[in-house]
């Protein structure tokens, strides 16, 4: 960067020099005149004083008009300060994108740390074909080594983990190497997350439209029938209107769930800062679901500690609890028992409860995990039903959008397959955990755990200290 001169030091230097020259010249002439007797002492003294005064006057004013170099501030020549320039090598070293320089025969001449990690290259350099077995990339590199410009190439790996990469290859001419002047610069960009997001968006649209198309087609069919041969059949009309009402309600539920999911996803990265009294939430949810419990004669057994306060958004946590208890009701046979347990101030191991608790062939899986913080205490909600249970292979898919276990009957209110996806996203937003344990034929336990409110956690630490002392 060029630096603009901000002070007038050089112009002052020139003025001083000019003034001194004029004063010295004038004084010398007058001294000589005095020495050779042409001037008396007093005359010479007055003349020298006059020359001095004129020099000071010149220094202060006239110099700038007589000497154009002084009128404008002088801009010094830009200085090259080697310390200001960052060497290209240092920049490449800290670049988080893999960059490699390939020389004759495909030998890796240099690679930045990101590239070494990406292709699994040790400290010694090797040949590109040994670490990157991608024919399209190797072809592009060979072309670049002949000085031919090449287009970016893409390649994908499906194992051991899915990855999608775009490789940019450019020929570089090194003038100091007259024998083999061409090198190939290879830049690799990981596009896996972009590809995955694209596919998820496409799948989501396909699923959402499929889920809406089915009830819409059935509605259109019933309307057609009602306008045709069922027009005069009162009994059929009543039955069809009932089914149409259920289908419309289902579409409403689906749209509400989709809106809810997209709202939650939008601020999933922002952890809620408020406090939610989970004990009060549990009481509200029980009151809200009482009619559904009564409709299937299901008994709800509760073990709810009072005043369990978590860091969180009360409305979203109410949605979590409704989804879990509603599922327990939906997937339980009539006249069975559901248990709702709420504990507080639980350390991580207790919140996760890794040991299996159900009889039979029970399996357990974490659907969401909080970041590891050894000091964190949790509020835990556990919902247990004695329904059909879920086979082990289905567990990992439970929180996928629109996933429903085949053959699961949820009664007249058919589910949307979005409830557990909503639970998972809310719990992730709260930096909490979500686990499921299930045993076919014996039922399931769905648990969520949430960071306890800070003040409460501090109080409980104080209490422990008090008790100890
Ligand atoms: P849905 O609206 O279909 O209930 P969810 O996302 O809540 O959607 O659940 C996804 C699937 O997980 C359900 O379709 C069901 O097959 C299974 N499931 C959820 N909860 C239970 C449960 N308590 N017992 C058995 N299966 C369950």
Give the strand line-up of the largest sheet. 7-9-11-13-12-10
Largest sheet: 6 strands, mixed
Helical run tally: 14
Structural class: alpha+beta
The ordered string of helix (H) and strand (E) elements is: HHHHEEHHHEEEHHEHEEHEHEEHEEH
Beta-strand segment tally? 13
| Mean of residue pLDDT values | 85
Tell me what the structure shows.
With 469 residues, this protein is of the alpha+beta class. The chain has 4 domains: 65 residues; 103 residues, 2-Layer Sandwich (Beta-Lactamase); 78 residues, Orthogonal Bundle (Helix Hairpins); 199 residues, Histidine kinase-like ATPase, C-terminal domain (Heat Shock Protein 90), CATH 3.30.565. It is 47% helix and 19% strand. β3 and β4 form a beta hairpin. α8 runs antiparallel to α9, α10 runs parallel beside α11 and α11 runs antiparallel to α13. The longest helix is centred in the middle third of the chain and has 36 residues. The protein is elongated and about 145 Å long. The relative contact order is 0.07. The N terminus and C terminus are likely disordered. The chain binds adenosine-5'-diphosphate (ADP). The site of adenosine-5'-diphosphate has 22 residues, from α11 and α13.
Q: Helices, strands, pairings?
A:
Layout: H1 9-35, H2 41-66, H3 68-71, H4 88-94, E1 99-103, E2 107-111, H5 113-119, H6 128-131, H7 135-145, E3 153-157, E4 163-173, E5 182-190, H8 192-227, H9 234-266, E6 275-277, H10 278-295, E7 299-304, E8 309-311, H11 314-330, E9 337-346, H12 348-352, E10 363-368, E11 378-385, H13 419-429, E12 433-439, E13 443-451, H14 454-468
Parallel strand pairs: 7-9
Antiparallel strand pairs: 1-2, 1-5, 3-4, 4-5, 6-8, 9-11, 10-12, 11-13, 12-13
Helix pairs in contact: 1-2, 8-9, 9-13, 10-11, 11-13
Adenosine-5'-diphosphate (ADP) is lined by residues 323, 327-328, 331, 385, 387-388, 390, 398, 403-405, 408, 410, 415-421, 444.
